[in-house]
Amino acid sequence: MKIAILPGDGIGPEIVAEATKVLDALDLPIEMDHAPAGGVAYAAHGHPLPEATLQLAREADAVLFGAVGDWRYDQLERHLRPEQAILGLRRDLGLFANLRPALCYPQLAGASSLKPELVSGLDILILRDATGDVYFGQPRGRRMAADGHFPGDDEGFDTMRYARSEVERIAHVAFQAARRRRRRVTSVDKANVLETSRLWRDVMSEVGKAYPDVALEHMYVDNAAMQLVKAPKAFDVVVTGNMFGDILSDEAAMLTGSIGMLPSASLGAGKRGLYEPSHGSAPDIAGQGIANPLATILSAAMMLRFSLAQADAADRIEAAVRDVIASGLRTADIHAAGTTRVGTSAMGDAVVAALRAGQLPVEV
Ligand code: NAD
Fold first, then answer.
1. Which residue's CA is minimally distant from atom 40 of ligand 1?
2. Which of 225, 244, 262 is the last residue of a domain?
3. Number of structural domains, the chain?
4. 3-class DSSP state for residue 74?
5. In which band, very low, low, confident or very high, does the pLDDT at 362 lie, cut at 50, 70 and 90?
6. Of all protein residues, whose CA lies closest to atom 38 belonging to ligand 1?
7. CB–CB of 291/331 below 8 Å?
8. Which atom of ligand 1 is found nearest the CA of 285?
9. Percentage of the chain lying above the pLDDT 90 cut
């Protein structure tokens, strides 16, 4: 198994180091090759996604990504900004599906801004198409009155569009994911207003017929936004387009109150995927050794499950993280009275120790 490790900017290198520590502890034949991406890559090579980094990702079975983003590069032209590293990888590797589980460990329910009983034990999956929709539709642009534009007012415009094939492929990912979970899919759209959504809804229903064991419901995006804060545990898999998913996945992430705990995966038609924490590069705490590495460690678990066919190893990592949380260890972002505060590296060590402890043969 060959994985490309792209730590990126800010806390990226710190949290990825802990994830590789955990992968090493599994004693699996995994080859890990590191490469720069994001602001550090721009500084060293003049591009956020250098050709050598892209090539490494193409040759790997999976990419483990830290985070990118650095205020020093915010003024660069769009195609040179750090976040182009992720967009470029998704585009080049054909990774159209973004999976974000939002999981709330009962011991961390107090960190949510919702009542603990609403979120304790929450386990939902937000699945978003990441390559289509109004973010990429053509034509797009700005028409300025000063350029002689008729009717003489400045305007900006974007095109929302989905092709049948794009909806079909994300629908299959949703129904297949639901089969590994509680067999319920909520498809989110705005079919009362948008033509794009009408096609989306029809195609979802058609694909759903091939999965009679999975319940499908349709929900308007405004209602979904409300239901997510009213009764989030009623959802299982939520599937939606790029823009609605962008917004709802951040809302779902905040339900748990701990962005440092949430992994994500970007998948395509094959087994290869890109795995990264849901949070950004957290420049405000970079270099202090206090970042929470668990989202990245859980992303590595998703990588083992989806790209490397190592479901047992993924289960072991997730169990080790549960054990560490149950033991009361907390990084600063999830710390509360009565728990023990630890740094990034100590948290990684604790997961490795729990992994090893879980491996011990049971004495009879
Ligand atoms: P952020 O997610 O980096 O940080 C938001 C807040 O959460 C900060 O207070 C930060 O300290 C905290 N936080 C985030 N991850 C944490 C962790 N693991 N442990 C403890 N605390 C954590 O979002 P932001 O501040 O809006 O953006 C910072 C930079 O990251 C920007 O340049 C942005 O463009 C970039 N960004 C990158 C990605 C990505 O790489 N996928 C995603 C979002 C933002």
1. 67
2. 262
3. 2
4. coil
5. very low
6. 280
7. yes
8. 11
9. 82
pLDDT of residue 359: 61
Query: What is the identity of the amino acid at 174?
Result: A
Tokens of 83: 């976040």
For the Cβ of 279 lying below 6 angstroms from any atom of ligand 1, the answer is yes
Average pLDDT across the chain, whole number: 94
214 and 103 within one domain: yes
Instruction: Match 């991406």 to its residue by tokens.
Output: 37
Cα–Cα distance, 290 to 71 (Å, whole number): 20
* CA 283–ligand 1 middle distance (angstroms): 7
Is 189 among the catalytic positions?
Answer: no
**Weakest mean pLDDT among 33-47, 288-302, 329-343:** 329-343
Return the ligand 1 atom nearest residue 71 CA.
32
* pLDDT tens string 296-336: 999 999 999 999 999 999 999 999 999 999 999 999 999 98
**Which of 70, 190, 211, 236 does the annotation list as catalytic?**
190
Q: What is the pLDDT of residues 119-161, one digit of tens each?
A: 998 999 999 999 888 988 999 999 998 888 777 889 999 999 9
**Which residue range forms the structural domain that includes residue 291?**
1-96+268-364
Is 92 a residue of the active site?
A: no
d(CA 83, CA 52): 17
CB crowding 107-119: b at 16 or more within 10 Å, else e: bbbebbebeeebb
Which of 262, 295, 310 is the last residue in one of the domains?
Answer: 262
Known catalytic residue at 275: no
Task: Clarify whether 133 is annotated catalytic.
Answer: no
